[in-house]
Automatic annotation (TrEMBL):
Record motif Q motif, residues: 29-57
Name used for this protein in its record: ATP-dependent RNA helicase ROK1
Residue window of the full protein shown: 99 to 345 of 566
Family, per entry: Belongs to the DEAD box helicase family. DDX52/ROK1 subfamily.
Signal peptide residue numbers: none
């Protein structure tokens, strides 16, 4: 526990909430503390990620314990892996059950694509059952059309990454069912809950009906309006601030 305090001090981390787990000091801690999937860890190493960044040290154990998280850390500090890694682990733990379990929302197509690429690398060669890979999709225009035309079943994907409007469009057309989604992640949450996007973000929240839904937000800045959203939608949230709240 003392080491954890020192670790937190070393990167000026401020973590607040009830019953907080300790940060991880290395990715190997994930194997010893949580029965973390060894294939995920070896994919990490293949991506040359050897040591967790501060936001990863703090956010990964919280997510694995099923907590709602507001994570604020500077641009370039490794937030993507901080939310993808525990999400993939949790999807793997749910077994080969069909249907959409995780949803990552990004304000732009470019960012959604980067997240998709990172997810694909980290889930490489991981099978949920015999010959059944983890199915991850970027909700592109063509995939939306295929879902609407039922060329592809909406039960096929375990994880979808999308911009708000594209997602809302398929949901409205009843081409994608969000009712079983267990993990909802908002990347660049400051943008997703600003005045231009907030109605879309609320509509997505309203479509995710699972009572066990875990929500998290990652951002480089936390405007007070985002704090208000956190207080209204999250259950017993944990706030992680690395560096300053305003970029
Ligand atoms: P952010 O979303 O916080 O702006 P990114 O997730 O885009 O940052 O990560 C920035 C860069 O750091 C990326 O190139 C990513 O591959 C790299 N990175 C992430 N985690 C690690 C790590 N643990 N070790 C080394 N590089 C990392
Ligand atoms: Mg980012």
């Amino acid at each position: 526990a003392h080491d954890a305090v020192l670790l937190r001090k070393s990167y000026k981390g401020n973590v607040t909430g009830q019953d907080l787990p300790l940060p991880i000091g290395s990715f190997e801690d994930l194997i010893t503390r949580f029965q973390f999937d060894k294939r995920l860890l070896s994919n990490l190493i293949e991506s040359h990620f050897t040591e967790p960044t501060p936001i990863q040290c703090e956010a990964i154990p919280l997510a694995l314990e099923g907590r709602d998280v507001l994570a604020c850390a500077p641009t370039g500090s490794g937030k993507t892996v901080a939310f993808i890694l525990p999400l993939l682990q949790q999807i793997i733990s749910l077994g080969d059950k069909e249907g959409l379990k995780g949803l990552i929302i990004s304000p732009t197509k470019e960012l959604a694509n980067q997240i998709f690429v990172e997810c694909s690398k980290l889930s490489h060669k991981i099978y949920l059952a015999r010959k059944r890979p983890l199915n991850i999709a970027l909700l592109s225009k063509s995939l939306s059309a295929k879902l609407r035309n039922k060329v592809i079943s909406d039960k096929k994907y375990d994880l979808i990454i999308s911009t708000p409007l594209r997602l809302i469009d398929v949901v409205k057309n009843e081409a994608l069912d969000l009712s079983d989604v267990k993990h909802l992640i908002f990347d660049e949450a400051d943008k997703l809950f600003d005045s231009t996007f907030v109605e879309q973000a609320d509509s997505i929240l309203a479509s995710c009906q699972d009572s066990q839904l875990r929500k998290s937000m990652f951002s480089a800045t936390v405007p007070s309006s985002l704090e208000e959203v956190v207080n209204s939608i999250m259950l017993d949230p944990v706030r992680i601030i690395i560096g300053h709240k305003e970029a």
